[in-house]
Amino acid sequence: MAMDEFDPGAYHWLVNMLESVEVGLVVLDLDFRVEAWNGFMEHHSGITASHIHKRVLFEVFPDIPQAWLTRKIGAVALLNTRAFTSWEQRPYLFRFRNTRPITGTTKYMYQNLTISPLSGPNGQVEKVCLMVYDVTDTATNKMALERANEQLAKLSMTDRLTNLLNRGTWENLLDAEFERFIRYKHATSLVMFDIDHFKAVNDNYGHLAGDEVIRHTARVTREAVRQADSVGRYGGEEFGIILPETNAEGARIICERIRQTIEESEVDTTAGPIRYTISMGITQLDSRPDNYMQWLEQADKALYKAKESGRNQVRTFDLSYI
Questions:
Q1: Same domain? 137 vs 245
Q2: CB contact at 8 A, 201 and 274
Q3: HSE (CB half, 13 Å, CA atoms) of 19?
Q4: Model pTM greater than 0.70?
């Protein structure tokens, strides 16, 4: 509309629209003094336009990141171009409480922010307009979806009974550790072990009690190893441990700790207390295996030797087992 066609009624309508729109509108001069503050900002801040008019924004909102916003506004004024920030980069500019019923568990409003230059009659940027968008629903929905996807990914990698790595995931790590050894020749050991006479546990006490024994075995093992080690449930009552940067003697010390803890413990189940033992086989990787499956076979042979020799013991692979 040309200036000589100025319509006071149209201006009034425009002001009403800016006051009622569900977007925060803040006009600042280049000294960060508030020139305009619409109804959205009044509603969510509890501060009226008349109260904040001509006041420095950072004095009223000391928690706003002053250095960051100053740089942003400085770039907008210098380049005479808009800047945009999403909630993923910075969750919010104004710490407004979340008032949306759908996402009521989120404490603060997530915001997208657009900063636009406002030029005077001479074409120079004299003010900037901050447009604050409430994107709480979008943000919380996306974060909920990401959490769900992370949980699904975790479920696809773990054994449901024990929360250890499942066989597929653990074997992938075993393959990766084998390839790492080929490249760097660092000491690394593999352990395979299982529960002695587990069929008798199931037959005498039932499968639910057997599940408790498996869970107890997983818990003891997890507590005995380091964060860098990888424990997996290989299947049924059989487990595997990958021990990077560990020689056979170091692996034997860890295994004896696990074996002894289990031998000395008692599992309380609804069918009664259960005592049990495990047998363990160790092999330190060397240049003989051509792939991780041959490495795994060595550990299985050591485990078989432990069971053949009376169970409840740890055996380390040697060539006589072949």
A1: no
A2: yes
A3: 8
A4: no
What CATH number does the domain containing 226 carry? Answer: 3.30.70.270
Contact at 8 Å (CB) between 269 and 277? no
Q: Which residue has the higher pLDDT, 140 or 259?
A: 259
Q: Of 157, 151, 163, which Cα lies nearest the Cα of 216?
A: 163
- Res. 4: pLDDT tops 60: no
Could you tell me if residue 149 is inside a domain? no
CATH of the domain at 87: 3.30.450.20
Residues in the chain: 322
The vertex-301 CA angle with 299 and 304, nearest 5°, equals 110
Task: Determine the Cα–Cα distance for residues 27 and 37; give it in Å rounded to an integer.
Answer: 7
Distances (CA, A) of 277 to 195, 237, 239, 260, 306: 6, 12, 14, 8, 12
Q: How far apart are CA 166 and CA 201, in angstroms?
A: 23
Q: Which two tokens stand for residue 289?
A: 């295996």
Closest by Cα among 265, 106, 97, 236 to 159: 236
Question: 268 pairs with which residues across the strands?
Answer: 273
Nearest to 255 by CA among 229, 275, 234, 233: 229
- Distance in angstroms (rounded) separating the CA atoms of residues 294 and 297: 5
Residues 6+ apart with CB under 8 A from 67: none
Q: Which of 86, 81, 71, 87 is nearest to 116 (CA)?
A: 81
**β-strand partners of 27:** 36, 129
Element (H, E) at 68: helix 66-79
- Rounded to an integer, what distance in angstroms lies between the CA atom of residue 286 and that of residue 203? 40
Residue 150 located in a structural domain: no
Q: What is the pLDDT of residues 163-205, one digit of tens each?
A: 999 999 999 999 999 999 999 999 999 999 999 999 999 999 9
Q: What b/e string do you get for 201-237 counting C-beta neighbours within 10 Å, with b at 16 or more? A: bbeebeeebbebbbebbbebbeebbeeebbbbbbeeb
